[in-house]
Amino acid sequence: MAYVVEVKREPMAAVLDLKGRGTTVAAVLARLGASLPDRPMTTARGPDLAVHWIGKDHWLLTAPIAEEARIAVVAEEEAERMRAGGASAVLLSDAYAFFSIRGRDAGAIVAIASPLDVHSRAFPEEGAALTEAFGLPALVVRRPDGFDLAVERSYANMIADYLARATTGTGGISHP
Shortest CA distance to 161 belongs to which of 127, 106, 113, 114? Predict the structure, then answer.
Protein backbone atom coordinates (compact mmCIF):
# COMPACT_ATOMS: atom_id res chain seq x y z
CA MET A 1 0.00 0.00 0.00
CA ALA A 2 1.31 3.44 -0.90
CA TYR A 3 0.86 6.18 1.68
CA VAL A 4 0.36 9.89 1.06
CA VAL A 5 3.52 11.01 2.76
CA GLU A 6 6.89 12.59 2.03
CA VAL A 7 9.93 11.33 3.90
CA LYS A 8 13.15 13.33 3.67
CA ARG A 9 16.52 12.93 5.28
CA GLU A 10 17.27 16.35 6.71
CA PRO A 11 20.64 18.12 6.89
CA MET A 12 22.76 17.66 9.99
CA ALA A 13 21.46 19.59 13.01
CA ALA A 14 23.16 20.98 16.09
CA VAL A 15 22.19 18.89 19.14
CA LEU A 16 22.98 19.71 22.77
CA ASP A 17 22.12 17.13 25.43
CA LEU A 18 21.20 18.83 28.72
CA LYS A 19 20.78 17.00 32.02
CA GLY A 20 20.32 18.14 35.60
CA ARG A 21 18.46 20.76 37.56
CA GLY A 22 15.91 22.62 35.49
CA THR A 23 16.79 26.01 36.97
CA THR A 24 20.44 25.61 35.98
CA VAL A 25 19.56 24.34 32.49
CA ALA A 26 17.05 27.18 32.05
CA ALA A 27 19.74 29.78 32.79
CA VAL A 28 21.99 28.34 30.08
CA LEU A 29 19.11 28.14 27.61
CA ALA A 30 18.23 31.78 28.32
CA ARG A 31 21.71 32.77 27.10
CA LEU A 32 20.89 30.98 23.85
CA GLY A 33 17.48 32.64 23.52
CA ALA A 34 15.59 29.46 24.37
CA SER A 35 13.44 28.26 27.25
CA LEU A 36 12.36 25.00 28.81
CA PRO A 37 9.06 23.44 27.70
CA ASP A 38 6.15 23.83 30.13
CA ARG A 39 5.64 20.09 30.62
CA PRO A 40 7.36 16.75 29.99
CA MET A 41 7.26 15.16 26.53
CA THR A 42 6.79 18.50 24.78
CA THR A 43 8.87 20.95 22.76
CA ALA A 44 9.43 24.67 23.26
CA ARG A 45 10.36 26.41 20.00
CA GLY A 46 12.09 29.67 19.31
CA PRO A 47 13.03 31.16 15.95
CA ASP A 48 16.05 28.88 15.44
CA LEU A 49 16.12 26.60 18.50
CA ALA A 50 13.90 23.86 19.83
CA VAL A 51 14.10 22.35 23.32
CA HIS A 52 12.61 18.87 23.76
CA TRP A 53 11.81 17.63 27.28
CA ILE A 54 12.57 13.92 26.92
CA GLY A 55 12.98 12.62 30.46
CA LYS A 56 13.32 13.44 34.13
CA ASP A 57 15.79 16.35 34.23
CA HIS A 58 16.70 15.66 30.58
CA TRP A 59 16.33 17.90 27.51
CA LEU A 60 17.67 18.00 23.96
CA LEU A 61 18.25 21.32 22.26
CA THR A 62 18.16 21.15 18.45
CA ALA A 63 19.05 23.89 15.99
CA PRO A 64 20.33 24.38 12.47
CA ILE A 65 23.96 23.27 12.21
CA ALA A 66 24.95 26.89 11.55
CA GLU A 67 24.12 27.54 15.23
CA GLU A 68 26.48 24.84 16.51
CA ALA A 69 29.51 27.10 17.07
CA ARG A 70 27.45 29.61 19.11
CA ILE A 71 25.87 26.81 21.13
CA ALA A 72 29.29 25.26 21.79
CA VAL A 73 30.73 28.59 22.99
CA VAL A 74 27.85 29.14 25.43
CA ALA A 75 28.04 25.55 26.68
CA GLU A 76 31.78 25.95 27.29
CA GLU A 77 31.36 29.32 29.02
CA GLU A 78 28.62 27.86 31.24
CA ALA A 79 30.38 24.54 32.00
CA GLU A 80 31.49 25.52 35.52
CA ARG A 81 28.09 26.96 36.45
CA MET A 82 26.44 23.81 35.07
CA ARG A 83 28.65 21.52 37.18
CA ALA A 84 28.13 23.66 40.30
CA GLY A 85 24.38 23.67 39.64
CA GLY A 86 24.15 19.91 39.21
CA ALA A 87 23.77 19.92 35.44
CA SER A 88 25.68 19.02 32.29
CA ALA A 89 25.64 19.97 28.62
CA VAL A 90 27.17 17.77 25.93
CA LEU A 91 27.30 18.63 22.23
CA LEU A 92 26.10 15.61 20.21
CA SER A 93 25.50 17.07 16.75
CA ASP A 94 27.41 14.38 14.88
CA ALA A 95 25.58 11.59 16.71
CA TYR A 96 22.13 12.05 15.14
CA ALA A 97 20.52 11.88 11.71
CA PHE A 98 17.14 13.56 11.21
CA PHE A 99 14.21 12.67 9.00
CA SER A 100 11.01 14.60 8.32
CA ILE A 101 7.83 12.64 7.74
CA ARG A 102 5.10 14.87 6.33
CA GLY A 103 1.68 14.43 4.81
CA ARG A 104 -1.75 12.97 5.42
CA ASP A 105 -0.44 9.52 6.37
CA ALA A 106 2.59 10.63 8.42
CA GLY A 107 1.04 9.22 11.60
CA ALA A 108 0.56 5.83 9.97
CA ILE A 109 4.23 5.67 9.01
CA VAL A 110 5.36 6.63 12.53
CA ALA A 111 2.96 4.02 13.93
CA ILE A 112 4.64 1.39 11.72
CA ALA A 113 8.09 2.50 12.89
CA SER A 114 7.42 3.05 16.59
CA PRO A 115 5.37 1.66 19.48
CA LEU A 116 4.57 5.26 20.49
CA ASP A 117 0.86 6.12 20.48
CA VAL A 118 0.92 8.98 17.96
CA HIS A 119 -2.79 9.78 18.06
CA SER A 120 -3.17 13.52 18.64
CA ARG A 121 -5.00 12.91 21.97
CA ALA A 122 -2.02 10.95 23.33
CA PHE A 123 0.79 12.77 21.51
CA PRO A 124 -0.28 16.34 20.68
CA GLU A 125 1.41 18.86 18.42
CA GLU A 126 4.94 19.61 19.66
CA GLY A 127 4.93 16.36 21.60
CA ALA A 128 8.45 14.93 22.01
CA ALA A 129 9.49 11.48 23.13
CA LEU A 130 12.56 9.33 23.32
CA THR A 131 11.21 6.03 22.08
CA GLU A 132 12.28 3.67 19.35
CA ALA A 133 11.94 3.39 15.60
CA PHE A 134 12.26 -0.02 14.01
CA GLY A 135 13.72 -1.28 17.30
CA LEU A 136 16.39 1.44 17.63
CA PRO A 137 16.49 4.41 20.03
CA ALA A 138 14.83 7.44 18.44
CA LEU A 139 13.52 10.91 19.15
CA VAL A 140 10.03 11.51 17.74
CA VAL A 141 8.58 15.03 17.60
CA ARG A 142 5.08 15.85 16.35
CA ARG A 143 4.96 18.85 14.02
CA PRO A 144 1.86 20.62 12.64
CA ASP A 145 2.18 18.76 9.33
CA GLY A 146 3.75 15.47 10.44
CA PHE A 147 6.70 14.26 12.48
CA ASP A 148 10.44 14.64 12.89
CA LEU A 149 12.47 11.53 13.65
CA ALA A 150 16.07 11.46 14.88
CA VAL A 151 18.17 8.31 15.16
CA GLU A 152 21.81 7.52 15.79
CA ARG A 153 23.69 8.51 12.66
CA SER A 154 25.27 5.07 12.24
CA TYR A 155 21.78 3.64 11.60
CA ALA A 156 20.58 6.40 9.25
CA ASN A 157 20.89 4.46 5.99
CA MET A 158 19.08 1.48 7.48
CA ILE A 159 16.28 3.70 8.84
CA ALA A 160 16.02 5.45 5.45
CA ASP A 161 15.58 2.04 3.81
CA TYR A 162 12.98 0.95 6.37
CA LEU A 163 11.04 4.20 5.96
CA ALA A 164 11.10 3.81 2.17
CA ARG A 165 9.75 0.29 2.49
CA ALA A 166 7.09 1.41 4.96
CA THR A 167 5.88 4.25 2.74
CA THR A 168 5.74 2.60 -0.66
CA GLY A 169 7.32 -0.83 -0.56
CA THR A 170 9.85 0.48 -3.10
CA GLY A 171 11.76 3.63 -3.85
CA GLY A 172 14.06 5.70 -1.71
CA ILE A 173 14.41 8.73 0.47
CA SER A 174 15.49 12.12 -0.89
CA HIS A 175 18.75 13.43 0.56
CA PRO A 176 19.76 17.09 1.00
Answer: 113
Task: Give the tens place of pLDDT for each residue, 4-51.
Answer: 999 999 999 999 999 999 999 999 999 999 999 999 999 999 889 999
The SS3 call for residue 41 is coil
Residues 6+ apart with CB under 8 A from 26: 35, 36
Element (H, E) at 152: strand 146-152
- The answer to whether the beta carbons of residues 52 and 59 sit under 8 Å apart is yes
DSSP string, 2-47: --S-EEEEPPPEEEEEEEE-HHHHHHHHHHHT----SSTTBEEE-S
Q: What are phi and psi of 35, to 5 degrees?
A: -140, 165
Q: Quick count: other Cβ atoms within 10 Å of Cβ 117?
A: 11
- The pTM assigned to this predicted structure is 0.91
CA–CA dist 142, 126 (Å, integer): 5
